[in-house]
Design a protein that fits this description.
This protein has 213 residues and is of the alpha+beta class. It folds into two domains: 2-76, Glutaredoxin (3-Layer(aba) Sandwich), CATH 3.40.30; 86-199, Glutathione S-transferase Yfyf (Class Pi), Chain A, domain 2 (Up-down Bundle). It has helices at 10-22, 41-46, 65-76, 86-116, 124-145, 161-172, 181-190, 194-199; strands spanning 2-4, 27-29, 54-57, 60-63. The protein has a four-stranded mixed beta sheet, covered by helices on one side. It is globular. The structure holds glutathione.
């Protein structure tokens, strides 16, 4: 297996974390950011959108971070990361979709608006609006996590990966945000997992004030 994408990329981290959880061996290829290469014909033949991550598994090529997480879980972790029962799986699934469609756009607006934009170019109003939306989203997740250890119940599943990946940057980027107690406790639980520490809890200073990729 081969995973394409720079380790500092939020969406790549979801795939790396999942690969780590599954204990799979794979080749990592740096791509995107300073490494570039996303506009090469060979890369575009794998992902016509020219984005990372991309997973190659033999003849199978998967792009879109959540599709990669689902593919890996379905192939290698039936009954654990990929709950077997459709109802249980739908709980993991819905928080993944929620993360992609609801949390992530506002989280990206905050992270890009605040952290990745040089101070002199920041739009404080837009940043504050994005921060407020993120806080409201995390409040909803907080209410869901009350009485649960993980997003889909007592055990870790693929449902924890997308929103879990956002936490490190959300709390560590230096912008003052509320700290909902159940989200914080969940974050601490994720931080007990070695693949989360290795692939997600990484320094991200190289992205500060950089809008070029
Ligand atoms: N929806 C896609 C988004 C992919 C995406 O935008 N990836 C970013 C990195 S997080 C990228 O390719 N950026 C260009 C670069 O890093 O050079 C996914 O979830 O995989």
């Amino acid at each position: 297996m081969r995973l394409w994408g720079r380790r500092s990329a939020f969406n790549v981290q979801k795939a790396l974390w999942t690969l780590g959880e599954l204990g799979l061996s794979f080749e990592h290829v740096d791509a995107g950011g300073d490494a570039g290469g996303l506009d090469r014909p060979a890369f575009l033949a794998m992902n016509p959108h020219g984005r990372i991550p991309v997973l190659e598994d033999g003849d199978v090529v998967v792009w879109e971070s959540h599709a990669i997480v689902r593919y890996l879980a379905a192939r290698h972790a039936v009954g654990t990361l990929w709950p077997e029962d459709p109802a249980a799986r739908s709980e993991a699934d819905r928080w993944m979709d929620w993360s992609q469609t609801t949390l992530q756009p506002d989280f990206m607006a905050l992270f890009w608006g605040y952290y990745r934009t040089p101070e002199s170019q920041r739009n404080e109003q837009r940043i504050a609006a994005a921060a407020q939306s993120c806080a409201a989203h995390f409040e909803k997740l907080d209410a869901h996590l009350a009485g649960r250890r993980f997003v889909a119940g007592d055990s870790f599943t693929m449902g924890d990966v997308p929103a879990g990946t956002a936490l490190h940057r959300y709390f560590e980027m230096g912008y003052l945000v509320p700290e909902p107690p159940h989200v914080r406790a969940w974050h601490a639980r994720l931080a007990e997992r070695e693949p989360f520490r290795t692939h997600v809890q990484r320094p991200f200073d190289e992205l500060r004030g950089r809008l070029d990729f």
